[in-house]
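wait is this the right file?? whatever heres the structure
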């Protein structure tokens, strides 16, 4: 089967990165019934419009078989309401955290908190996700929660993470939750008040050496980001992996799933987590999913895309992250606000040309 993976250019006029991904696979020169269309995240509202137009123009259809909302951050979810409104969507995968409130009151010290009030708070804090679910119901779209091993199209599409247990363990640490979240916010506010001026200049020059990753070992990703849906698509013995904003812990669990997968498909495409943020991956994660660093100049038949804004640097993408993928022989590409496509056996598109891999960054600036 052929496939096309399209990263819509989120942040084409700004420094705000986001994800809006359209995928189709199957017989791309056949009738509509011979291929599937999947959307993973919709970026901001305007990105949703771009996504709709892209699918109509380049896929020649107004039907989407599956929409996946990886997590409820606005740079991922806001555009999906446009997709549901303007295209014919069959199925939506989205987490409903407010339905996982049983026993949550016990996680907090305030005796006035109840499971019911926690559920209401989650609905309020995750309003965009709740609204999307209600929109889908009104439109007659099937809604499923994407936990590990949920599949679509005969397991061509499969959820690698999170498990339901892991997802539920993250909920008490979601933004806006009582007690714990407020304490964390106080710490952050104090740090911002005391170090704001210094933070802008707290950078150091880094000299990189081939094969040495400059990556963290501890997971500092937020709970909401770690709740991201991690998805694989397998077609023609090619494994395609989409990570949302997942962090080290979530990706380690996804790697466990890959280790236990009986399908021998080789990884050919991977989404760089969280727009190339330095917090989200470790050397161990990359070694498990991609393999250990290779000799300088050696390459593998793997492509990795980071969805970044035009003016997102130096935060998105981090040079250390791009180097770490390159160390492993991966052709690594940052969108920088452009729409780009990775394809296999797909028909040519007029006006589209190949993109160059990210160069190796021997010197760069990094936060001290």
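ok assuming it is, sequence goes like this
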């Amino acid at each position: 089967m052929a496939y096309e993976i399209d990263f819509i250019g989120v942040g084409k006029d700004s420094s705000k990165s986001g994800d809006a991904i359209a995928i189709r696979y199957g017989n791309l020169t056949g009738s509509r019934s011979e291929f599937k269309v999947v959307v993973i995240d919709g970026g901001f509202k305007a990105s949703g419009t771009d996504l709709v137009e892209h699918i109509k123009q380049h896929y020649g259809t107004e039907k989407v078989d599956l929409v996946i909302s990886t997590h409820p951050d606005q740079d991922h979810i806001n555009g999906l309401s446009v997709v549901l409104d303007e295209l014919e969507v069959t199925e939506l995968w989205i987490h409903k955290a407010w339905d996982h409130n049983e026993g949550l009151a016990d996680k907090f010290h305030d005796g006035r908190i109840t499971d019911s009030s926690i559920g209401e708070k989650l609905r309020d804090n995750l309003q965009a996700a709740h609204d999307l679910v209600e929109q889908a119901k009104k439109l007659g779209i099937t809604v499923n929660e994407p936990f590990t091993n949920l599949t679509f199209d005969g397991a061509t599409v499969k959820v690698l993470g999170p498990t339901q247990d892991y997802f539920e363990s993250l909920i008490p640490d979601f933004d806006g939750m009582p007690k714990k979240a407020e304490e964390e916010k106080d710490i952050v506010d104090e740090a911002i008040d005391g170090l704001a001026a210094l933070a802008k200049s707290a950078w150091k020059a880094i000299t990189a050496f081939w094969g040495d990753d400059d990556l963290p070992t501890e997971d500092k990703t937020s709970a909401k980001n770690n709740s991201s849906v991690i998805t694989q698509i397998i077609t023609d013995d090619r494994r395609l992996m989409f990570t949302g904003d997942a962090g080290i812990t979530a990706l380690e669990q996804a790697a466990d799933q890959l280790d236990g997968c009986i399908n021998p498909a080789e990884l050919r495409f991977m989404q760089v987590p969280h727009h190339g943020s330095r917090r989200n991956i470790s050397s161990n994660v990359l070694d498990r999913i991609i393999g250990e660093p290779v000799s300088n100049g050696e390459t593998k038949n793997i492509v990795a895309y980071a969805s970044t804004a035009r003016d997102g640097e130096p935060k998105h993408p981090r040079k250390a992250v791009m180097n770490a993928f390159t160390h492993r022989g991966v052709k690594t590409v940052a969108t920088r606000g452009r729409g780009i496509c990775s394809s296999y056996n797909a028909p040519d598109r007029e006006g589209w040309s190949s993109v160059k891999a990210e160069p190796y960054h021997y010197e760069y600036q990094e936060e001290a």
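The first strand starts at residue 2 and ends at 7. so i think its the right one actually
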